Amino acid sequence: MPDVEGSLLDPAVQACPFPYYRQMREQAPVYRMPETGFYLISNYEDLKNVLSDPETYSNDILIEQMAGEGAADLGRMYDEHLDKVGWGHVQTLQRTDPPEHSRYRRLINRAFTPPMVKAMQPGIERTCAELIDAFIDRGECDFIADFAFPLPGIVIAEQIGLDASQITTFKRWSDAMLSPAQGLLVDQASAEHYAAIEAEAQHYMAPLLEDRRRNPTGDVLSALVADSAEGDEPLSMHELQNLMNQLITGGYTTTADAIGNAMLLLIEHPEQMELLRNDRSLLRNFADESLRLASSVQGLFRRTTREVVLSGVSIPENSILHIRYGSANTDEAQFPDSERFDITRDNAGKHLAFSRGPHFCVGQPLAMQEMMIAFDHLLNRLNNIALAPGVVPERTSGLIFYSLTSLPITFTKR
Which structural domains are found in the chain, ordered by start? Predict the structure, then answer.
């Protein structure tokens, strides 16, 4: 085994993973993590091949295969309690492979067609303006709490019948749904506590979903329960609840993280902020470059269905791969001078932050629209954006998400 310094399970490495990623790509592009037995995949070409071949690299993975014994037991407690008080988790979009996955993908794609995403634009514009209105006269704010998290939260919440005043409830539901992935389950009581909160969200959504079957309104819920033109079986309530879990967690937290990470990158590179301020045609490339360098999801998992060889390393059948998007997106072989933030980078859009292949993120068009509208509004209304004096940005610990805990900033009103 290569002599590797550090561990991806170390919170300090998770907070600043780039030196570790360089070491992996140079010394051990396929590395069996001694703490978990996972095979860490770190270079761009290997990730691209894994993501494009679901037959060999399956997404159908049980929770006990992705977690240590203790965490797996707590995850089972969560699911068992959820099954008692709500609708237990079933394998749907994220944990299935083609052809089964194709059915879920066809059905959920209807919720994010270009016309539907475009129809959300006025709501995104209005929400951006209202959020900025609430803090602009103070000359300071916590950008994460006051803008990055509320924006995508309100956008998704409004699609499930909540209004902006209920964003606290929506965040509580989302946090509970993400609690197994964020390591918040520490004992049976906490597992049952968070499962009960997810069940609360499910019992709120169940009658809404049934109502949309009878009285469609053209929103995301209506699209999910509409009859399929391809003749697919309608989604059961168990399937719908699981898909809603993925839409809420995937469409909320990851987009909020992306907006927060992008703001920090601009603050750390003021010349790039001025470039964007003076040329808004760069907004899309800026969003891509931010996602490339600070991917909201740093890594996920796949399972080998046969023995494979990646970067010269033989990996047995039924092994768990930890595919590290954050490392692939800073692979010098694909992105020269990869750790430099450059919103004019000509191949920024080749990042893997939204994955690739059949599991390419269905919410990508909405996330990109939210990021571009958000920073257009922010740069229109705020000048001299900087970190608040004495602030050193901190991140939450965890193997998967790249999240800022807060981002206190100062600014002047334009």
Answer: 11-413 (1.10.630.10)
**Predicted confidence (pLDDT) per residue in 223-259, tens digit:** 888 876 677 778 889 989 998 888 888 778 899 999 9
Give the C-alpha separation, 373 to 263, whole Å. Answer: 13
Output the pLDDT for position 69: 52
Q: Structure pTM?
A: 0.93
By the 10 Å C-beta count (0-12 exposed, 13-18 middle, 19+ buried), 412 is classed as exposed
141: left (phi over 0), alpha (psi -120 to 50) or beta: beta
Q: Are 160 and 221 in contact (CB under 8 A)?
A: yes
Number of neighbouring beta carbons within 10 Å of residue 72: 16
CA distances from 210 to 92, 159, 170, 225 (A): 19, 15, 20, 8
Distances (CA, A) of 49 to 127, 335, 356: 39, 17, 9
Measured distance CA(86)–CA(88) in Å, rounded: 6
